[in-house]
Automatic annotation (TrEMBL):
Pfam families: PqiA
Broad class of where this protein is predominantly found: membrane
Compartments where found: Cell inner membrane
Top-level taxonomic group: Bacteria
Family annotation (InterPro entries): PqiA-like (IPR007498), PqiA-PqiB_transport (IPR051800)
Organism: Pseudomonas kulmbachensis
Keywords from the named record: Cell inner membrane, Cell membrane, Membrane, Transmembrane, Transmembrane helix
Transmembrane segment boundaries: 50-69, 97-122, 143-162, 174-193
Entries under PANTHER family matching the protein: INTERMEMBRANE TRANSPORT PROTEIN PQIA (PTHR30462:SF3), INTERMEMBRANE TRANSPORT PROTEIN PQIB-RELATED (PTHR30462)
Stated name of the protein: Paraquat-inducible protein A
Length: 214
């Protein structure tokens, strides 16, 4: 059975910036379209992904323990964490807002933590288990990353609504900063992971190392 040649066998390299397939037969080091540096694979992909993922886990703790906003209603104010805010919205009948904040603030980061850890561990163990499904999992992580700031937007809209109706006042607290850092570092972690590592074999890795060294 004839198999099609791989990109490395054709001396082709995908630009990580603009996605152009570049011909490396002339030893080009920059993309001819956007001038970005060319690499067969993302440099230090696993190390950088682990570093960003661990940083996001560290910031995730204060993001959930510290208050994210202070709500003043009829002269009385109270700080709210993410979970207490979810419960407060739920108790006041705003179950849709509570559900959005819970999914975006608790469920989505948790899914990304578990998924990226699974991808990293299986790649480092050279596992051949469910490669197609793991590739789909990575694309799913990329997809939900676009909605990571949804709860911050919801809090901003609620604050604007409260101020507009003169019902009270809402001010941000330090917890929202830590959650923003969680979002940023999880996105960087997903961007640093090279999904082609899922399909690598020891022979492919040796070929990539030789190509990069030359």
């Amino acid at each position: 059975m004839n198999t099609p040649p791989t990109a490395s066998e054709l001396n082709l390299c995908l630009c990580h910036t603009c996605g152009l397939a570049c011909d490396l037969s002339n030893r080009a080091h920059q993309c001819e379209r956007c001038d970005a540096p060319l690499h067969y694979r993302k440099i230090n992909s696993l190390t950088r992904t682990w570093a960003y993922l661990l940083a996001s886990l560290v910031f995730y703790i204060p993001a959930n323990l510290l208050p994210v906003m202070n709500t003043t209603m009829l002269g009385s104010g109270a700080d709210s964490t993410i979970m207490s805010g979810v419960l407060e919205f739920w108790q006041h009948g705003a179950w849709d807002i509570a559900l959005i904040i819970f999914i975006a603030s608790i469920a989505v980061p948790g899914i990304k933590f578990v998924a990226l850890t699974l991808l990293l561990v299986t790649v480092q163990r050279n596992s051949q288990w469910a490669r197609k499904e793991r590739s789909k999992l990575y694309r799913f992580v990329e997809l939900i990353g676009y909605w990571s700031m949804l709860d911050v937007i919801v809090v901003a809209l609620v604050a604007a609504l409260v101020k507009f109706q003169a019902l009270g006042d809402i001010e941000p607290r330090v917890g929202i900063l830590f959650f923003g850092l969680v979002v940023i570092f999880t996105m960087l972690s997903a961007m640093s992971f090279d999904p082609r590592l899922i399909w690598d074999t020891p022979q492919n890795k040796e070929q990539m190392d030789d190509a990069e060294s030359h």
